[in-house]
Design a protein that fits this description.
The complex is a heterodimer. Chain A is mainly alpha-helical. Chain A folds into two domains: 100 residues, no CATH class; 50 residues. Chain A contains seven helices and no strands. In chain B, strands 1, 2, 3, 4, 5, 6, 7, 8, 9, 10, 11, 12, 13 and 14 form a 14-stranded mixed β-sheet that branches. Chain B has a three-stranded mixed β-sheet with strand order 16-19-18. Classes of the chains: A mainly alpha, B alpha+beta. The interface between A and B is large, with 63 and 61 residues.
Chain lengths: 172, 302
Amino acid sequence: MNDAVVPTHAPELTLSSLYRDHRSWLESWLRRRLGNAWDAADLSQDTFLRVLASAQPLAQMQEPRAYLVTVGKRLLVNFHQRRSLEQAYLNALASLPEASVPSPEQRWLVLETLQALDELLDGLPVLVRRAFLWSQLEGLGYREIAERLDVSERTVKRYMAQAYEHCLLVDL
Amino acid sequence: MSRDVARAAAQWLALLESGAATERDHAALQHWRDSHPQHEQTWQKAQSLRQRFSALPQALAMASLDRPQPGRRAVLKRALGVAALVPAAWLLSRQLPIDAWRADLHTATGERKRLSLAEGASLQLNTATAVDVDLAQRRITLVDGELALNVPGTTAMTVHTRYGQLRVSQAEVCVRQQASGCLVSVLKGAVQVRDLNGQLATLQGGQQAPLKASGLGAWAAFDVLQLGWRDGVLTAQNQPLGDFLRELERYRPGVLRWDPSLEALRVTGSFRLDDTDRILNLLAQSHGFKVQARTKYWVTLS
């Protein structure tokens, strides 16, 4: 009897009932982890948007809160990665000599590009990522990269191919 | 695009950048690109990726993207633990607030705070403000931004700024610190000011004066509506729009730009600071200009 999967007495789950019944619970769950209400409200909205966009049929969802938490956790990780990028960026800006600090518009533009590239590179092994950055940003040749990482030039070439392939496959 | 095409393009790129590619390799690459539209598309995508990297300021990009990576598991752990105090993106549009991060109390751009101190005294912080509070010494150090301090009792509190000190008792004062100096406005009572050279002077209620490295400037009367932020209100009385927007900018994270032709328009009204987007939209309606949001943090008026 497959019908038993959906208990007949449970009201059917819709996005609006999910939102109505669990939004404030999810927000307080997020707020405890973020320490502030604004980011929690933002992330909770994002979580529901993800749920809306996902293929998972709501009506069959057994544990809505567990599902929301799974999506919410993923967004929290992204959120913290963004924050750690922002922090590294701010620290780098702060250590620049006054004269070479970019204008406010440029600071934002650069940050946006950095965020996009940071997401793009996410998931690459640390050494591959570093080798790729040295090549792209500092224009280092494979030999120098090989020396710095203490690996062979062949390995560097393999790293580069791996990084390019990873980037080209994202958002295909 | 298939994984195979991406892989092939990646191999070509890795070969080209190795510096070991021969004439024949170049010809073979050209042939590969020409042999299928998807190959060429992938190739172009790779080129635009390279351009995005090369357009970045090198040192900044390297320090940000090659920051120590705690690894996904550690990130998750931290994400699920108690929130760390991290500076938000709003800081970027202001001068670099290194001192501000280290301060005891701060407000983000657009945020305001009120604190009750001992003996009925109260402290209010305006947007993007940082202060150190030493209650044992009854001393408040204004690191950055703007504060209002009300001390109804007779035991004085001092406010330290980069340009001098204020002694406040049975008085209420508002201090705004900027790069060039402070603006001191006394709302009630009398406030003693000591400049960096040790000169003493007194400002009375209703008087406002600049305090700079060179000392306390001449006082002038001021309109208390200027300090409406204490009640969350920004008030303008036939003010040039440019001046109004420069004031409003303090309360908005990100960048606000406007067409110079808007500078001279006039604004009158009281606006709630809680929602500065709404203020912009109201003004756009009444003055017939357009609000364009390039991103959430970059808005242009024209």
